[in-house]
Write a structure and sequence with these properties.
Elements (H helix, E strand, L loop, with lengths): L6 H13 L7 E8 L5 E7 L6 H6 L1 E7 L6 H14 L4 H9 E6 L4 H5 L25 H16 L2 E10 L5 E5 L10 H12 L9 E2 L9 H7 L6 E7 L15 H18 L5 H13 L25 H46 L6 H16 L10 H21 L1
Parallel strand pairs: 3-4, 3-5, 5-8, 6-7
Antiparallel strand pairs: 1-2, 2-4, 6-8
């Protein structure tokens, strides 16, 4: 099940943040664009705005987005957890604001949320399949988010991008990442999820998957990784159900759990970017034991999990095997039918030859009359085979045509 989170809820929440005497100094709201229906798609910027300009320029960037699929309301609750934490009073939140600039798009598909869609926009399109060449007119939120990330990269290094989703088929919190980029360490994309696993008791690293399926090449995760060259690009998935391990095993996730995973995510960012890289080195050692180096080229990526597709699953993986199997079944069945017909016709021909041999054994001479009889017996036997058999001789077909003509003329005379 899921907990509702509407466009109105988001608007009220942002207004509440802007009215808070402390939090309002840590957040700025900008209108990223307008949707097809004319609704505002807001972008939030979170950092320490009181810093000197030089310090601001040296900060690295992090981009977060959510709710591209309107039905995945749990992604909005996770996003609320992010914003609450980053604008909060804790020391860790202050360290993050002092070292990073966060650009957040909390609702990528406002029209779909307002109109009650589960997956698509008002254009009837899954927006998480339109990142390769997004239309400025039809997919304005995707187009402007992609442009925003590109411009953000021109100003500073963007170290991480994460798109938040809900998952209806798998349990736990987990991530989908990428792998196989030339010149990149084989564990680079796995380090952050493993850090998050070590921080959070609800996050499952074993459920994470790192690979690029063909059907996902136009998703945010893959396009930002491949085209914009941001190595640490992920989707964070939250189960609609709950956990299957730990203290929350066999329990549904509630809104508190959904917000807590965001707090843990922020703690993992601190470990990931900590000048003291001892935790990162420890994680690399763990990954070495999980994924031993088998090849000389160092490639040992775990296989792509075709069956357990993420929430931006279009059905391609599920349909692909069945599409391949169906033609093979048809071919096999047609061949078996043809084989049966051929076997049947061969049996009847051999029977006709045996009858002819018996007639010869009874003293019949090999005159024209005997040949006609044997031909006649063959034609009769072939009549019992499949209709319109292509192997019938001309001598066999002519008598049947004459008989049909005679029967037709007799019927006319009777009339």
């Amino acid at each position: 099940h899921c907990y509702p989170y509407t466009y109105t809820d988001l608007c009220k929440y942002i207004i509440k943040l802007e009215e808070d005497p402390k939090r309002k100094n840590r957040i700025r709201r900008r209108t990223l664009c307008q949707t097809l229906a004319g609704n505002n798609c807001d972008m939030l910027i979170i950092t320490n705005f009181m810093s000197e300009p030089q310090m601001m320029r040296n900060r690295k960037g992090i981009v977060l987005s959510s709710r591209v699929h309107p039905g995945e309301t749990n992604s909005s609750w996770m996003m609320k957890g992010f914003i609450d934490y980053l604008t909060g009073p804790t020391l860790d939140a202050k360290i993050l604001r002092d070292n990073f600039i966060f650009k957040i798009v909390p609702m990528m598909n406002p029209d779909g949320v307002i109109n009650g869609s589960y997956r698509c926009s008002l254009a009837g399109v899954d927006l998480n399949r339109s990142w390769l060449e997004p239309s400025r007119k039809l997919y304005p939120t995707v187009f402007n988010t992609k442009m925003m990330i590109k411009k953000f990269q021109e100003d500073r290094e963007v170290v991480l991008y994460c798109d938040l989703h809900g998952h209806s088929r798998k349990k736990n919190f987990f991530m989908y990442g990428n792998s196989g980029k030339p010149g990149v360490d084989r564990f680079q994309e796995r380090i952050f999820p493993k850090l998050l696993h070590n921080v959070s008791t609800m996050f499952s690293f074993k459920d994470c998957c790192f690979g690029v399926q063909k059907s996902k090449e136009s998703t945010a995760r893959v396009v930002v990784w491949k085209e914009l060259n941001i190595i640490n690009t992920y989707t964070l998935e939250a189960s609609f159900c709950g956990a299957d391990f730990g203290k929350y095993a066999d329990c549904h996730f509630n809104t508190k759990h959904l917000q807590q995973i965001a707090y843990h995510f922020c703690d993992a960012i601190l470990d990931f970017c900590d000048p003291d890289q001892s935790k990162v080195r420890s994680v690399i050692d763990e990954l070495e034991s999980i994924y031993p180096k088998n090849n000389d080229d160092g490639s040992n990526d775990n296989p792509i999990d075709e069956g357990s597709a993420d929430s931006d699953f279009s059905g391609d993986e599920a349909l692909a095997p069945s599409k391949k199997k169906k033609p093979s079944k048809k071919k096999g069945s047609s061949k078996s039918k043809k084989g049966k017909k051929e076997d049947k016709s061969k049996k009847e021909e051999s029977k006709a030859e045996d009858d002819a041999a018996e007639n010869n054994g009874n003293g019949n001479s090999t005159s024209n009359g005997s040949k006609k009889k044997s031909n006649g017996s063959k034609s009769k036997s072939k009549k019992g085979t499949a209709d319109d058999d292509d192997d019938n001789d001309d001598n066999d077909t002519k008598p049947t045509k004459k008989k049909k003509a005679e029967s037709g003329s007799s019927k006319k005379s009777k009339n």
